[in-house]
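Hi V.,

You were right to ask for the full record rather than a summary. Here it is.
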Amino acid sequence: MKLLLTYLAGVVFGLGIAISGMANPAKVLNFFDVFGTWDPSLAFVMGAALLVTAPGYMLVFKRPKPAFAEGFKLPGTKLVDRKLVLGSFTFGLGWGLSGFCPGAALPVISTGNPAVLIFTASLIAGMLLARWMIANSARRQDAAQAN
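Predicted structure:
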């Protein structure tokens, strides 16, 4: 049942991405082109997503636990640190340069569009680089504390 619901959620997400036009990088880039061919429709898509998501979260968090997990997995801190700021900056930069959001790019992979394939490969490379940098930083901190 969990697998079926996960699949259905993915289908609904993919359809929403396709219907809203977020799978089209030109539409996304036009949203960012405020002084050129600005297309504000993406703001309406985001607003509609918030209108659906906010009540959904309120309903879900009234439950003692998720349907298919032992408990909710929430961030342990609300601290805005350097990793959060750099990650947000990198996400926004990649989205603004390519027109692909990672969530929107995944349903578009099946089209074989070279731009989305390059974006996805770059996304994976960036994630691996970030993991390596975090692990390397932790090793250096451990070595400094040991001395």
